[in-house]
Design a protein that fits this description.
- The protein has 360 residues and is of the alpha/beta class.
- Helices cover 39% and strands 14% of the residues.
- It is built from 13 helices and 13 strands.
- α2 links the parallel β2 and β3.
- α1 packs across α7, α4 packs parallel to α5 and α6 crosses α9.
- The radius of gyration is 20 Å and the shape is globular.
- The relative contact order is 0.13.
């Protein structure tokens, strides 16, 4: 259990302001809202803005999360995207909205709740922002809208192929927001879609199981391991979100951007990078996919009535079977996005953090 006096995530409680880089300066005097500020990406963005002295408010789902941000010197409010209450007060007197809150990996909830949060709630917030004359609305979607990519490297205009409930509802949300944005007057709110790849780094708990299994010598590859994975280091991802909010209107309005770091690698190569830095070896034998997929389906069926997250799901098995490799040239050309972190350095930094926190 997290110790309230010693926050788990990096940078929490940061009091000293960092010098603002030149490309960032357009946000200096803006009032900013970051939804999902207790999450991995949203929290990292919130803390970066806070560290640069920006006037930023976060929204979180639970009061104790707001209290934790307050103890770290930040401002936070509770926002439930599934709520029927108007969202007007959250965006009043706000200049820039970064919308990162979403329902993710909560298999205890059905499609109706996912749609209410990831589609209806997201659109409702965007509409409220437009009515409040917000200048910029940056919506965080996911490269998962492309699913198991059929065109490699996948471009923003490549076919959509969402593979699960989260990806389907995130796609529905971004499409609804873009359709609404097309109705806005010329010179109105700028709306941009940011699609993160597999984001990792200090503070990430989603990739912990993968790293931990390798470092504890309990890892066995599922399937061939030759499917492609494209990681996005957290610092690069935060850079990309900020760039979406400061790039010229004509470069980003009604545009979507796939974001990742370095180059795509096979899962075999990714596992070797983790093992090499950790000083361990991984077995050469692999487990067939289909029995694990069936086990994931069975777990979902059994655990669903209990409203609890199953120990194994088809989504987790899908990690070993879906190709994910993305063309980042559009983000580089429109945003000036630069991939600063390579896979080797990012993995090393992440493992160091896991070890520091006693997680591996």
């Amino acid at each position: 259990m997290q110790n309230d006096k010693e926050p788990l995530y990096p940078g929490a409680g940061l009091a000293d302001r960092m010098e603002i880089p030149d490309w960032f300066r357009a946000l200096v005097n803006k009032r900013i809202l970051v939804t999902g500020a207790a999450g991995f990406i949203g929290g990292a963005l919130f803390r970066r803005l806070q560290a640069h002295g920006c006037d930023v408010t976060g929204t979180v789902l639970c009061p104790h999360e707001a209290d934790a941000i307050g103890r770290g010197g930040g401002k936070a409010e509770v926002l439930d995207l599934a709520s029927d209450v108007p969202f007007d007060r959250y965006v009043r007197e706000i200049d820039v909205v970064f919308h990162l809150a979403a329902m993710f990996q909560e298999t205890e909830h059905g499609e109706a709740m996912y749609r209410r949060v990831n589609e209806t709630g997201a659109l409702k917030l965007c509409q409220a922002a437009a009515a409040a004359r917000v200048e910029r609305f940056v919506h965080c979607s996911t490269v998962g809208v492309h699913g198991d990519v059929q065109e490699m490297p996948c471009k923003e205009a490549s076919a959509f192929n969402p593979m699960d409930l989260y990806h389907r509802t995130k796609l529905a949300g971004e499409l609804a927001i873009l359709e609404f944005a097309k109705t806005l007057p010329a010179g109105g709110m700028v709306v941009t879609i940011n699609r993160p790849a597999m984001v990792y780094g200090p503070g990430d708990m989603r990739m912990l199981k993968f790293f931990k299994a390798i470092l504890s010598r309990r890892f066995v590859m599922i399937g061939s391991g030759e499917v492609m994975a494209h990681l996005g280091y957290i610092d690069d991802q935060v850079d990309s979100l900020i760039l979406c909010a400061v790039a010229p209107r004509e470069k980003v309005h009604l545009e979507a951007f796939n974001i990742a770091s370095d180059r795509p690698v096979t899962l075999n190569e990714l596992a070797r990078l983790v093992a090499d830095y950790g000083g361990v070896k991984i077995p050469k034998w692999h487990i067939p996919v289909f029995p694990l997929w069936l086990a994931g389906l069975a777990c979902e069926v059994i655990w669903a009535p209990l409203k609890r997250r199953p120990p194994l799901s088809r989504r987790r098995v899908g990690f070993f079977t879906y190709n994910r490799a993305f063309d980042l040239s559009k983000a580089e050309a429109h945003l000036g996005y630069i991939r600063r972190w390579d896979n080797k350095a990012g993995i090393a930094k992440t493992i160091d953090w896991y070890r520091e926190k006693g997680l591996v």
